[in-house]
C-alpha cells in the first residue's frame, strides 16, 4: 500500500522488517502525534530476514543456544551473555503482551507459541560441558525450571526422533526448558505494521531508498524510487532510522556520518533442510541446538527446529553456510565490492586476514556434497531418509566488521546500533540474536537518539514494559509478576 505521503515527515523508517515495525510501535506510544513514513523495497513487509522461513524463529532467549554460554579455560561456563540475552527477550515479551492487550491481535498464537528448548551434546567432552552449563544456568532466576539429563531413556521421551537407532554406547546429555517459544517474526512484523498504518503511519511498498544525505536545513533528505512507476522523489525528515538489514551499511555510508567509518560487512547466506512429513514432525516437538564443530564459527551451530508457520508444522535442520556477495536475498552481486571504502578498507583486510579459518569453513560449506550435507543431519537424526527432506535457502546475513581499540579489523557475530553524532540518524547492523531482542534494541535507540525526551517518555514505557530500566535477573518478585502476566497474555505454557 502507498500514498504520496508527506514531503517533510517527522520520522522516516527504511526497511519493512521487525526493527522498523518495532520502532514504529514504540513511537506510537511515546510520540503518537509524530508523522512517520516507512519505505520498503519489496512487495510486502518482512520479506527478508524477518520472513519466517529465513530464520529459525527460536525467540532467542539463550535457553538452548550453546554459543551464548562459552566455557572458560578451566571448563566452567560463563552465564553472563545468556542472562543478558534472556533479559532482552523478556523485554520483547512484555511489549508484545502490552500490544496484545491493546488489540494487536485476537490470538497471539498467530505469532508466538510454546515449544520446549533443548540443548543436546554427545561424547565425554560434550557431557562435561553440558553439566557445567546446567550448573551455571540453573541457579539463575531467568532459567528457573531448567532440567538436565544424561539418561537415554528419559531423552527418548524428550527427543524421540533423535534417539531412534542411536548407539547405546554413545554418551549423550541434554538440558530442557519448557519456557521456550517459537516466534513467527513475519506474522509479528505484519501485525505491528498493520497496527501502525491504522494509526496513520504511511507505508510505501516497492519503494527503494537510493541515497541519504543531510540537507542545508539539517534534515535528512532520503531519495526514494517508486519501483512500479520509476518516479523518484526526496523526503526530508527530522529523524531517520535505517533498519534495512544487510542494506543498512551502504545507506549509512551514503549518509556520510563519521560513526560509520571503519565498519564493513561480510555477507553469509544460509540453507536449511526442511521436512513437512507429519510423522517426523510429530516425533520432534522441540527446538534442539547442538555444538558447533571445532574451528567452525558460532553461526554454524547445528539445530533441529520445530516451526509453526501459518498453521503448518515443519522441521528445519541447519544451517549450512554459503557465500554470496549480496547483502540481501533480493540484493545485487555488487553489494560487497561497493561497500568497500577508504574508511573501512583496513578493517575489511584485517578481518579477512584474522578469519582465514572462517574463509576455509565457508569454502568447504559451498563445496560440500549432498551426501556430506545429509551426514550432518544423520548425526542429529540417525534414521533420516533423504526423500523426506528438501534444501531451502534462508535469509542473507551480513556480519559486522569493525575496528577494535587497536585499530584492527574484527568480525563481530551480533548486532551493532550506529547512531549519528547528534542523534538524528541511526541504523542497525548485524544478525543474531537480532529479531528476538528488537524491543531492547529500539529502546536503546530511543535513549541514545532522544536523550532530552526519554525522561518524559519513561512513565508510558514502564507502563508498557514493567521491567524497563530494571533487571529481572536481580528482582525475583518483579520477574514472577512479569512471567505470569506475559505467559497468560501471550497464551503460553505456564
Automatic annotation (TrEMBL):
GO MF entry, a single one: L-malate dehydrogenase (quinone) activity
Gene3D superfamilies for the chain: D-Amino Acid Oxidase, subunit A, domain 2, FAD/NAD(P)-binding domain
Requisite cofactors: FAD
Alphabetical UniProt keywords: FAD, Flavoprotein, Oxidoreductase, Tricarboxylic acid cycle
Catalytic activity: (S)-malate + a quinone = a quinol + oxaloacetate
Pfam family, one: Mqo
A biological-process GO annotation: tricarboxylic acid cycle
EC number: 1.1.5.4
Listed pathway(s): Carbohydrate metabolism; tricarboxylic acid cycle; oxaloacetate from (S)-malate (quinone route): step 1/1
Keyword Flavoprotein applies: yes
Lipoprotein listed as a keyword: no
PANTHER family: L-2-HYDROXYGLUTARATE DEHYDROGENASE, MITOCHONDRIAL
HAMAP family xref list: MQO (MF_00212)
Entry similarity comment: Belongs to the MQO family.
Protein name as annotated: Probable malate:quinone oxidoreductase
Amino acid at each position: 500500500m502507498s500514498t504520496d505521503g508527506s514531503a517533510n515527515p517527522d520520522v522516516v523508517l527504511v526497511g519493512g522488517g521487525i526493527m522498523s515495525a518495532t520502532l514504529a510501535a514504540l513511537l506510537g506510544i511515546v510520540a503518537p502525534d509524530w508523522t512517520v513514513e516507512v519505505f520498503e523495497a519489496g512487495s510486502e513487509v518482512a520479506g527478508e530476514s524477518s520472513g519466517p522461513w529465513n530464520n529459525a524463529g527460536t525467540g532467542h532467549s539463550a535457553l538452548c543456544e550453546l554459543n551464548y554460554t562459552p566455557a572458560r579455560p578451566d571448563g566452567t561456563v560463563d552465564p553472563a551473555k545468556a542472562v543478558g540475552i534472556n533479559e532482552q527477550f523478556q523485554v520483547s515479551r512484555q511489549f508484545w503482551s502490552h500490544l496484545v492487550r491493546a488489540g494487536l491481535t485476537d490470538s497471539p498464537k498467530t505469532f508466538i507459541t510454546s515449544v520446549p528448548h533443548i540443548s543436546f551434546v554427545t561424547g565425554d567432552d560434550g557431557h562435561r560441558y553440558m553439566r557445567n552449563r546446567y550448573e551455571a544456568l540453573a541457579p539463575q532466576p531467568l532459567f528457573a525450571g531448567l532440567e538436565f539429563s544424561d539418561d537415554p531413556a528419559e531423552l527418548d521421551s524428550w527427543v524421540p526422533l533423535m534417539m531412534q537407532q542411536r548407539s547405546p554406547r554413545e554418551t549423550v546429555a541434554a538440558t530442557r526448558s519448557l519456557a521456550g517459544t517459537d516466534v513467527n517474526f513475519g506474522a509479528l512484523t505484519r501485525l505491528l505494521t498493520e497496527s501502525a498504518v491504522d494509526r496513520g503511519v504511511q507505508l510505501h511498498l516497492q519503494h527503494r531508498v537510493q541515497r541519504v544525505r543531510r540537507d542545508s536545513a539539517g534534515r535528512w533528505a532520503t531519495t526514494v524510487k517508486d519501483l512500479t512507476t520509476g518516479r523518484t522523489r526526496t523526503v526530508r525528515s527530522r529523524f531517520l532510522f535505517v533498519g534495512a538489514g544487510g542494506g543498512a551499511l551502504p545507506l549509512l555510508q551514503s549518509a556520510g556520518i563519521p560513526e560509520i567509518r571503519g565498519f564493513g560487512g561480510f555477507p553469509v547466506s544460509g540453507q536449511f533442510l526442511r521436512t513437512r512429513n507429519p510423522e517426523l514432525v510429530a516425533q520432534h516437538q522441540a527446538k534442539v541446538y547442538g555444538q558447533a564443530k571445532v574451528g567452525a564459527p558460532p553461526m554454524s551451530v547445528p539445530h533441529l527446529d520445530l516451526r509453526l508457520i501459518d498453521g503448518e508444522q515443519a522441521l528445519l535442520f541447519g544451517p549450512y553456510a554459503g557465500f554470496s556477495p549480496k547483502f540481501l536475498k533480493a540484493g545485487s552481486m555488487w553489494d560487497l565490492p561497493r561497500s568497500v571504502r577508504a574508511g573501512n578498507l583496513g578493517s575489511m583486510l584485517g578481518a579477512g586476514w584474522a578469519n582465514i579459518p572462517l574463509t576455509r569453513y565457508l569454502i568447504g560449506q559451498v563445496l560440500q556434497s549432498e551426501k556430506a550435507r545429509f551426514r550432518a543431519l544423520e548425526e542429529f537424526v540417525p534414521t533420516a531418509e533423504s526423500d523426506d527432506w528438501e534444501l531451502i535457502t534462508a535469509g542473507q546475513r551480513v556480519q559486522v566488521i569493525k575496528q577494535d581499540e587497536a585499530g584492527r579489523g574484527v568480525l563481530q557475530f551480533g548486532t551493532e546500533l550506529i547512531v549519528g553524532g547528534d542523534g538524528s540518524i541511526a541504523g542497525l547492523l548485524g544478525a543474531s540474536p537480532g529479531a528476538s531482542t528488537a524491543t531492547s534494541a529500539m529502546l536503546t535507540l530511543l535513549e541514545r537518539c532522544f536523550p532530552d525526551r526519554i525522561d518524559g517518555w519513561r512513565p508510558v514505557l514502564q507502563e508498557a514494559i514493567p521491567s524497563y530500566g530494571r533487571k529481572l535477573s536481580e528482582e525475583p518478585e518483579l520477574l514472577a509478576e512479569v512471567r505470569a502476566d506475559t505467559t497468560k497474555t501471550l497464551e503460553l505454557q505456564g
